[in-house]
Amino acid sequence: MPDRQPLILIPGLMCTERLYAPQLHGLADAAAMQVADTTVGDTMTEIAAHILAEAPARCFGLAGLSMGGAVAMEIMRQAPERVTRLALLDCTPRTDTPERTELRHAQIARVRAGELEALTRDTLAPLYIAPRNMEMPGLVETVVAMARELGPDVFIRQINALLTRRDSVETLRGIAVPALVLCGREDALFAPALHREMQALIRNSRLAIIEDAGHLPTLERPDAVNAELRDWLSGPHG
Fold it and tell me: Are the beta carbons of 193 and 185 closer than 8 angstroms?
């Protein structure tokens, strides 16, 4: 077997390595994967710096979903020379709208009141998962279990990091490595139209829209996502 290229996978808000379980299994022959720790740091800058410090190699491929995509864009701002290829999944380069900011503060209040699990089950999971996939065996419970595992303190730190993140549109314009922009067709948070805009900003990039999936296509439609990631991994390095 040829040497597998290093690949760092960055989870989304209140997600653990379970978010990428199908990729860790299905792409093990194509890449030496490590799931990044997004629990260290209070800002996007600090989270990205910690991931860079703990990276398994000097240069690596990078993929991030949702908040993980925001972290990946911050890594591209801090150390673009270390990234050989980039995949941005179900994310946005823009900062929050006032409405989203207000919503995030309300979520923090619920979590401070001891409602993390309830918030995840009744509010976040229906936003993350396409309606047709809500009955997939174990999917909602996986989302709830990841949140439970990380706990309230991590939720508050990650939300604050999202609230204070910088706009990354200009960062996208400067990316020169092979890039994949991917999203679920039914993503209720970041629609395909936004991802088309992102793809247009990045040189040497392509867009993949996963049918019958929402905000978590890695779990909702893992075979389709794995096929797109394998194709991305098989191309030349940056």
Answer: no
- Tokens at 193, concatenated: 């139209």
Kindly list the structural domains of the chain, giving each domain's residue range(s) and its CATH number in brackets, ordered by start.
1-238 (3.40.50.1820)
Share of the chain above pLDDT 90, in %: 97
Give the residue ranges of DSSP H helices in the chain: 21-26, 44-54, 67-78, 98-112, 116-119, 125-128, 139-163, 169-173, 192-201, 217-220, 222-234
pTM over 0.85? The answer is: yes
- Neighbouring residues of 19: CB distance < 8 A, sequence distance ≥ 6: 11, 12, 65, 146, 216, 218, 219
Distance between CA atoms of residues 111 and 97, nearest Å: 21
Class of residue 156 by CB neighbours under 10 A (exposed 0-12, middle 13-18, buried 19+): middle
